[in-house]
Amino acid sequence: MHLGTRKVRSAGRTSGSVEITLPVEVQALTGIGCEIILQDGVRPQIVLQPDLSVAQALFIELWEMLRGGLGTVGDIGDFALSDFNVAFLPPVTGTSARLFPTTTP
């Protein structure tokens, strides 16, 4: 998803720090630790990969509550993030389908 073009600025010649003003769409990343990956090559890219382990732990905890509550119906199995289409930004269509499993019965 292309969110615009920004310039990298130096925070000081010898500090090693750089600054990038990010678009408002990624404001939710404020305070979240991110891994920074530089993909070199013909078209180099800087990738910010947020640490979502806290959110995943919350999903697991909620899943276990659902599992306990639905125990009389049947076992729903362990939580697997890959069974869901979790997205940082809402879908372009404006639907909330990202909250539901990607597989259909």
Helix-strand pattern: EEEEH
Main β sheet profile:
2 strands, antiparallel
Tell me the structural class: alpha+beta
Number of H- or I-type helical stretches: 1
Into how many domains do the coordinates divide?
Answer: 2
Spatial strand arrangement across the major sheet = 1-2
Tally the beta strands. Answer: 4
Contiguous uncertain segments of 5+ residues: 97-101
| Structural shape | elongated
Mean pLDDT metric: 79
Radius of gyration: 19 Å
Oligomer: single chain
Q: In what range is the share of β-strand residues?
A: 15-25%
Classify the helix fraction into a percent range. Answer: 10-25%
List the helices and strands and how they pair.
Layout: E1 8-10, E2 18-20, E3 34-39, E4 45-50, H1 53-69
Antiparallel strand pairs: 1-2, 3-4
Molecular structure report:
The chain is an alpha+beta fold. It folds into two domains: 43 residues; 47 residues, no CATH class. The strands form two sheets. Strands 1-2 form a two-stranded antiparallel sheet. It is elongated, with a radius of gyration of 19 Å. About 5% of the residues have low confidence.
Q: Main traits of this protein?
A:
2 domains; 16% helix; 105 residues; 1 helix; two-stranded antiparallel sheet; 17% strand; 4 strands; two-stranded antiparallel ribbon; alpha+beta
In short, what is this structure?
With 105 residues, the protein is α+β, with helices and mostly antiparallel strands. It has one helix spanning 53-69; strands at 8-10, 18-20, 34-39, 45-50. The chain is elongated and about 65 Å long.
